[in-house]
Amino acid sequence: VAAAAAAAAAAAEPMTAAEAEQLAADEGLALVRSSQSQTGFKGVSKLGGRFAAVFGSHQSQKYLGMAATAEEAALLYARHVGAEASAAAAAAAEAEPMTAAEAEQLAADEGLTLIPSSQSQTGFTGVSKRGSRFQAAFGHAHLGMAATAEEAALLIARHLGAEASAAAAAAADGREEAKRKREEDAEDKAVAAAEKRAAAAAKKQAQKEAERRRGGRRRRRRRRSGCGA
Predict the structure, then answer these.
(1) For 42-57, what is the mean pLDDT?
(2) Residue 165's CB: how many other CB atoms inside 10 A?
(3) What was the pLDDT predicted at 53?
């Protein structure tokens, strides 16, 4: 009974990405990422609301188990192949980083949208640089590390799904458009203010010049009057 209760409690609390990565590290394993998988991990596929871990090709697949998160399923895969093989596969995946074009093409193929952000140094919402790699996070959920910002943005889009990623991208575009409009308005106001100052300065200069000419005429008239006397 106690074992069953413990198992139920464990199932009710799915392993987080950070916990899966920490367990992998503790066991000397590496989670094997894959830009070609919609889950972001090699050997992991989504089935309903859970994730299946499998090893091998379609002709000779070995079912490794189900998990609540992609990271936990990736840990099942890493445990099956072992420390050396998982490290080699992870290194190979990292050695061939996904390009921006590949990430955008995969997003389009999967009906997803990468979410831009002018507020982020990486150019994408939820993506931050950590050393030479990029971390994807949404809210309190750590979604994984990637070799490029675009690949990390794809992890976020996959996490959100097609509809939510499109909505978030549209909202980001709206914010960008509003920001551009504010910047354009500010620039127009600055130009108008500069033109107003220039016009005021020109008017003042013209007034000084007119006053100078009037003063010159008055002096000439006084000289002529003096000469006539």
Answers:
(1) 89
(2) 24
(3) 94
